[in-house]
Amino acid sequence: MDEDRYPAPSSRRRFVKGIVGSAALGSLGTAGAGLTEVPTNRSGVGGGSIEAKVIENTDGPADRGMSQIPVTIEDGYLKGVWPGSTEGATTEDDAVQTTLGGVTYSSKWFQYCGNQTHPKLEPDSEADNFLRVDDGGAYEWQSALESGAKLAVEEFDDYEEWGNGVGDDGLGKPAAATWRSTETDSSLPVQVIRSPEIEAAAEDDEWLAASTEKGFLAWLNSCTHLCCVPAGFKQSATVDGAENAVYCQCHQSVYDPFSVVTSVFTAYPRPQN
Fold this sequence. Notes:
mainly beta
């Protein structure tokens, strides 16, 4: 185990710059919520090397970032974009994909950490794509919301001022959610944030302009180290570098939601029917 990959606890606070430039967000890199264990038998269909947009892993033992979920707004509610629901979608290598913002967006992006066994990741599966409240979330402001209710844009109206006593106020307002998880026995854990930094960066970045809306950005909340579900954005004031980032409490991996990069990884095959 590489101990240098673990960030050391520190009482220092790291302050981020006011607005993250689009060059940083568009830069290129390579590489509990019903989560099932990673199977040791990797036989199946639809696996293989895939290039995905992820929120960058900046510290800890994780080998890459967590896959981004494009979002849109419908009737005032947040909705994750499934590649099969878009115009011009095709099925190749037993996965559904489409072109979004000049990027090939594929269902394989989410085939890791056991999520590949989820029935709603089948290429032709139909599902409710709204982002819905996860009552297991770590944010106090969500306690007044009904579990499973659709997340509404108006619930994030204070995103330019929101704070929780960790790191800097005004960087954005997060929420814990699930996606494509109704009418199933398992769920896909998601985090979403509305941030003025994402909003500004999308003005000059084709991918972010297509995959975010009104500053909303979402990702599959499965840590790529050992598949834990990270506590989330602005949830640790004790680990240096995590105050204004996404923190995985299990093994101290840190992810930067303001740095969306490209990562190459091996998507696990889905079980054959």
